[in-house]
Specification:
Length: 198
């Protein structure tokens, strides 16, 4: 079967596996087919501790759904978190997003069922449903209140942070943690009925 498939087909297959399924699935497919796919992703992607990045490390492409770490600190070289990058991970509880990150893709953390806390210093734009189906997300730590855009706290009375609605899976994030000296104003939370503690 492998002899009937040309290298272009393998290259496209390898790229789909690495971007859609992650590093663990990528290695599993390599082992199953007894095929080394590393040359097909060279120059496009790099794998660091089961996390797939663009070759220049500016984009976090895929965090393996099978990765069992409880906390992950996104590297400071990262500028973008791709759409669905952390989708369906069942172990991650705490994610630190550095100031270098300027965009979170749509559904970046979709269905991370144990995600409890976000430490957010960056990300100026976000796609939709970034934290959808994250029922345990209750706490956001930020060092810049200017990152909160409440848009009148929308019709659900929940705040936005960097454009990402903190209304998640029928529940509302209810705690915002800020250090002593922060930029911004508490007016960001005016009318946000969901916030119980700052």
């Amino acid at each position: 079967y492998k002899q009937e498939i040309n290298s272009y087909d393998f290259r496209e297959f390898a790229l789909q596996i690495i971007t859609k399924c992650g590093a663990v699935a990528f290695r599993t497919v390599e082992e199953t087919l007894s095929q080394d796919f590393s040359s097909f992703i060279a120059g496009k992607f790099i794998i660091v501790d089961d996390v797939v990045f663009s070759a220049d490390k500016k984009e976090l492409v895929k965090y393996a759904p099978e990765k069992i770490d409880k906390k992950y600190i996104i590297p400071s070289t990262t500028e973008t978190v791709r759409r669905g990058a952390f989708i369906n991970n069942e172990d991650i509880e705490d994610v630190a997003i550095p100031a270098s990150v300027t965009h979170l893709g749509t559904k970046a953390f979709y269905n991370c069922k144990h995600l409890t806390q976000i430490e957010w210093s960056g990300a100026k734009t976000s796609g939709s449903e970034v934290f959808r189906e994250c029922p345990k997300l209750k706490s956001v730590y930020t060092d810049n209140l200017n990152d909160f855009w409440n848009y009148g706290c929308d019709n659900l009375s929940s705040p936005f942070i960097n454009g990402a609605d903190l209304y998640v899976n029928g529940t509302l994030c209810d705690e915002i943690i800020v250090p002593d000296e922060v930029q911004g104003t508490l007016r960001a939370f005016k009318g946000c009925k969901s916030i119980k503690r700052i």
